[in-house]
Amino acid sequence: MTDVFTGKYKLIKSTGFDEFLSELGVRPIKRQLAKSASPEIEIERSGDAWHVKSKAGLGSSEFIFKLGEEFEETRQDEAKVRSVVVQDGNKWTQTQTPVHGSKVVTIVREFKEAQMTTSVTVGSVTAVRVFDRVV
């Protein structure tokens, strides 16, 4: 392993995710699907660019970014957002700012040798999701 960030991760624990999705405005049926999924995330590095791929059930998403540089993506509530990821030691903090309306989301990913803990916050609601490193 070349760094603490790259690898494949599988969800093992999730708390507060339904409340987070509800606060974000995700409809009940889509929330149920999201909660029942067991996402796998793969993080790769190419030079100074990072590629994050997420697979869960029928859906998948991916984005490429460089630390500190703004990029566009579409998040779970289908809002188009401008994101920026900054690094502080073994943590990445991503801020998703909607292009039109909607709510700002902050994602903090903390990487350890065998796990990644992700805290996602919208308004006063925070969900915590723990992923084990599988590769």
Automatic annotation (TrEMBL):
Question: Is Phosphoprotein among this UniProt entry's keywords?
Answer: no
Q: This protein is called what?
A: Cytosolic fatty-acid binding proteins domain-containing protein
Record-stated family: Belongs to the calycin superfamily. Fatty-acid binding protein (FABP) family.
Q: Which UniProt keywords apply?
A: Transport
What InterPro entries does its record include?
Calycin, Fatty_acid-bd, ILBP, Lipocln_cytosolic_FA-bd_dom
Spell out the Gene3D superfamilies in the cross-references.
Answer: 2.40.128.20
Tell me where in this chain the Cytosolic fatty-acid binding proteins domain is found.
Answer: 7-24
Q: Which domain of life is it from?
A: Eukaryota
Q: Please name the source species.
A: Metarhizium anisopliae BRIP 53293
Pfam families reported in the protein's UniProt record: Lipocalin
Extract the SUPFAM superfamilies matched here.
Lipocalins
Q: Which GO terms describe its molecular function?
A: lipid binding
